[in-house]
Design goal:
Blueprint: H1 2-24, E1 44-49, E2 55-58, H2 59-62, E3 68-76, E4 82-93, H3 94-101, E5 114-120, E6 125-129, H4 130-134, E7 142-148, E8 151-152, E9 161-164, E10 174-175, E11 178-185
Parallel strand pairs: 1-11
Antiparallel strand pairs: 1-2, 3-4, 4-7, 5-6, 5-11, 7-8, 7-9, 9-10
């Protein structure tokens, strides 16, 4: 009886989050191959929404944050197929960027109702919960990156990108041409 009760509570909550994530993700598919990726290249990211300090950060601004480096991250698509590899990337933790912007939390439990939406210039979007980023090991692997193999990112990635390196299937939350981070409270 208790197991059924908990499942009855969890399934609608998960369904609501999944529906929200799908609605804000643009497509269920990852970035398509752009015929001319240079039209999507971004030079900075905006951080806005439920934050005390709206930010616009260039690559040079990001270099002022504590650095985060990852040597090898396989890119695995949602089907489970390995589709590539990110090697020797350098950037900053997304949560460090969010801490600088200072997420607005009027009530103690507000942060538990927050999502962070990473948006690309081609319309692709991915969603993280505040708890994933700040209250789980996953947050230690969500990187806003700007270098690969010691060089600036090329047009096919944009000057600024994001990847969740601790996801099992990293491809769906690999955001090329990152242009914005939005913090949003999804329930009261």
């Amino acid at each position: 009886m208790i197991k059924t009760f908990h499942a009855a509570l969890l399934i609608p909550a998960f369904a609501a989050f999944a529906a929200f994530a799908f609605a804000f993700s643009g497509n269920a598919m990852a970035h398509s191959k752009a015929a001319d990726p240079s039209k999507y290249v971004t030079q900075s990211i905006a951080v806005a929404g439920a934050v005390e300090h709206k930010l616009r950060l260039s690559v040079d601004d990001l270099k002022d944050f504590p650095p985060s480096q990852v040597s090898d991250t396989p890119l695995v698509c949602q089907s489970g197929a390995k589709v590539g590899q990110l090697e020797n990337i350098k950037g900053v933790l997304l949560r460090d960027v969010l801490e600088k912007a200072s997420v607005v939390s009027k009530n103690h439990n507000d942060v538990k109702k927050m999502v962070v939406i990473a948006k690309a210039s081609d319309g692709y979007k991915v969603v993280f919960s505040w708890s994933e980023l700040f209250n789980s090991p996953l947050g230690e692997g969500v990187i806003v990156f700007f270098e690969k193999d010691g060089k600036a990112l090329e047009d096919d990635e944009g000057r600024i990108a994001l990847v969740s390196t601790k996801d099992i299937r990293t491809g769906p939350r690999h955001v090329k041409w990152l242009k914005a981070i939005e913090v949003k409270k999804i329930v009261d």
